[in-house]
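To the wet lab folks,

You asked to see what we're planning to order before we commit. Fair enough. Below is the target structure as tokens, and below that is the sequence we designed to fit it. If anything looks off to you, flag it before the synthesis order goes out.
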């Protein structure tokens, strides 16, 4: 990462990181959030063996076959209050890559955010994120035409008040991916928890 990107990434990592949940719908989306695997002591202890890192290339698309996700990726930065931006609330919901994180396949935690619900439009692109299981595949299509293939190592549902900042945004020595959305019980028009998927680069595709 450039020094500017690194500073923005550190800023996000020390601020409020309960992102991916703005504009939740007024209805409860049925998910299987409470079926998520019990958290391990750290993300890296349960992750599969990693492939060699890739060069930097902006992600343009995300596919998660096990839960029917196939979405273009927006580029997200920082909001005015220093928190990570979230995708806009639209009828055709898309996930977004946090552009101050490593690109998928680079060493470090690449971060992708998505909504579980999108206001009056209903279900969000990550409505089934909590259903993922260890061993499921996540594919990010890169701007250079290649695809970085990740394997899920862990899925956590955690209280927003106990968001695991270090596990999500902290330094790691291999290419990893984080998918983040909201989940758990409702509180007003929002959710009390975050669903976080931890995945490791395990291959590439042309």
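Sequence we intend to order:
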């Amino acid at each position: 990462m450039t020094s500017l990107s690194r500073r923005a990434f550190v800023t996000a990592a020390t601020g409020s990181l309960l992102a991916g949940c703005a504009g939740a719908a007024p209805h409860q989306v049925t998910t299987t959030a409470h079926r998520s695997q019990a958290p391990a002591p750290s993300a890296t202890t349960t992750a599969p063996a990693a492939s060699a890192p890739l060069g930097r290339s902006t992600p343009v698309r995300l596919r998660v076959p096990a839960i029917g996700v196939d979405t273009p990726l927006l580029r997200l930065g920082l909001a005015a209050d220093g928190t990570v931006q979230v995708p806009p609330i639209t009828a055709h919901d898309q996930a977004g890559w946090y552009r101050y994180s490593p690109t998928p396949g680079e060493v470090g935690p690449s971060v992708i955010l998505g909504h579980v619900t999108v206001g009056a439009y209903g279900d969000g692109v990550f409505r089934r994120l909590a259903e993922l299981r260890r061993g499921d595949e996540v594919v990010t299509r890169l701007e250079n035409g290649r695809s970085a293939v990740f394997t899920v190592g862990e899925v956590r549902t955690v209280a927003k008040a106990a968001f695991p900042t270090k596990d999500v945004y902290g330094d790691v020595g291999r290419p990893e991916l984080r998918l983040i959305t909201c989940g758990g019980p409702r509180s007003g028009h929002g959710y009390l928890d975050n669903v976080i998927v931890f995945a490791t680069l395990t291959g590439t595709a042309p």
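Structural context that might help your review: The longest strand covers residues 190-205. Residues 3-14 form the longest helix (12 residues).

Thanks,
Computational group
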